[in-house]
Write a structure and sequence with these properties.
2 domains, Acetylornithine aminotransferase, 402 residues, arginine biosynthesis, transferase, single chain, 36% helix, cytoplasm, binds pyridoxal-5'-phosphate, 4-stranded parallel β-sheet, globular, Aspartate Aminotransferase, domain 1, alpha/beta, Aspartate Aminotransferase, domain 2, Class-III_PLP-dep_AT
């Protein structure tokens, strides 16, 4: 994209992101507008965050009401909305207790602390956690150490120890660790890897992991920060495999844009933390809890799980139809409204090209076009995504310029 000179430079913001030269000013549903008045279709949802799209007519008045009552109180006091949201997450997941924080990495950090303490409580002094190639769990020192991407880790060593890495969907690799490493206390993976290129854990693999974790007395910890909260057409992606984790970090879509993170735990893990073991200043504040409660309520009321499954299915089928037989197209992966289109070559430039054509999306793992739109996406909007995106991909693969 050409640099928009009307855009202000930002000499005081740390240069940590490669940004496109636009700034968004407002949105409605799955449409957003930039400060120059150009309109975009939102295929990215703020990276799987804007569950209800933008300016949702049911969410906005609820949040306005909450802001007028109480934004933050702090965890010296009871926050009744924490129990409301925790109870709802437990009802939806079959787990028993939740801890609230504000971001995905914090939810994962809490999960890692639970796993280590679970080990210490069992008398394992140097607990180790099985993590995965291509995993992404965040950018704190511990979560970047669990992450399987050397680009995320480069420059930040020494890394946190206590991780054993295995490839995805390879049961023998985990069984080998079980045979040889008595210090393992947990298996930690994304049910569908997001940043790693939309790589789903297979259903049979998840079932086998559940069985192995039970046999070994390990915690099964499923990072559903990106794939959870209805995105795949079930509340949580692991529910497609009919299993339950012991620990489940959540964030991204839970507050529909308001920062909310949670770690939800079942009986094996829910009592590992006691008073003084963990905490956060912002976590569970009334505004973020209200955002979570209302997001889940509106999702249920408006049938957004069904919508994600149905419209996601349409989107996937249409993309496959449009790209079938095109040289350089590898496959579409994912489920519901979490889709990755793998190409045979790095395709980062599609980001700017799609933006110029009025479509927001992302490219992960160099070669995978990622679509994680709001769960309110309509069939017509899905068709618009296909109509903009597929010709761009064909042109790109043919070596032409958009
Ligand atoms: C985005 C993401 C994270 C990190 O979340 P932040 O809110 O950016 O800290 C962790 N795990 C997964 C699977 C994610 O997609």
């Amino acid at each position: 994209m050409t640099v928009d000179t009307a855009l202000p430079t930002e000499p005081h913001v740390m240069h940590t992101y490669g940004r496109l030269p636009i700034a968004l000013s407002h949105g409605r549903g799955c449409k957003v507008w930039d400060t120059q008045g150009r309109q975009y279709l939102d295929g990215l949802g703020g990276i799987a965050v804007n569950t209800l799209g933008h300016a949702h007519p049911k969410l906005v008045p609820a949040l306005q009401e909450q802001i007028g009552q109480l934004i933050h109180s702090c965890n010296y006091y009871h926050v009744p909305l924490q129990e409301t949201l925790a109870a709802k997450l437990c009802e939806l997941s079959g787990l028993t207790n939740a801890f609230f924080c504000s971001t995905g990495l914090e939810a994962n950090e809490a999960a890692l602390k639970i796993a280590r303490k679970y080990g210490h409580d069992k008398g394992i002094e140097r607990p180790e956690i099985i993590v995965y190639e291509k995993a992404f769990h965040g950018r704190s020192i511990a979560t970047l150490s669990a992450t399987g991407n050397v680009k995320v880790q480069a420059g930040f060593g020494p890394l946190v120890e206590g991780f054993v890495r295995v490839p995805m969907n390879d049961l023998a690799a985990v069984e080998e660790v079980a045979r040889t490493n008595p210090n393992v206390v947990a298996v930690f993976l994304e049910t569908i890897q997001g940043e790693g290129g939309i790589n789903p854990a297979r259903t049979d693999y998840l079932k086998s992991l559940r069985r192995l974790c039970d046999e070994q007395d390990w915690l099964l910890m499923l990072d559903e920060v990106q794939c959870g909260i209805g995105r795949t057409g079930k509340w949580f992606a692991h529910q497609w495999a009919g299993i339950q984790p012991d620990v489940m970090p959540l964030a991204k879509g839970l507050g529909s844009g308001v920062p909310v993170g949670a770690v939800v735990a079942g009986p094996k893990a829910a009592k590992v933390f006691g008073p003084g073991n963990h905490g956060t200043t912002f976590g569970g504040n009334p505004l973020s809890m209200r955002a979570g409660v209302e997001t889940l309520r509106i999702m249920e009321e408006d049938g957004l799980l069904e919508n994600a499954a149905r419209v996601g299915g349409l989107l996937r089928t249409a993309i496959e139809r449009e790209l079938e037989g095109v040289e350089g197209f590898v496959e579409v992966r994912g489920q519901g409204l979490m889709l990755g289109i793998e190409l045979d070559r790095p395709c980062g430039e599609l980001l700017g090209q799609a933006c110029e054509k009025g479509l927001l999306l992302s490219v992960t793992a160099d070669r995978v076009v990622r679509l994680v739109p709001p769960l309110i996406l309509s069939a017509e909007e899905a068709a618009q995504i296909v109509a903009i995106l597929c010709p761009l991909i064909r042109q790109f693969l043919a070596g032409g310029k958009a």
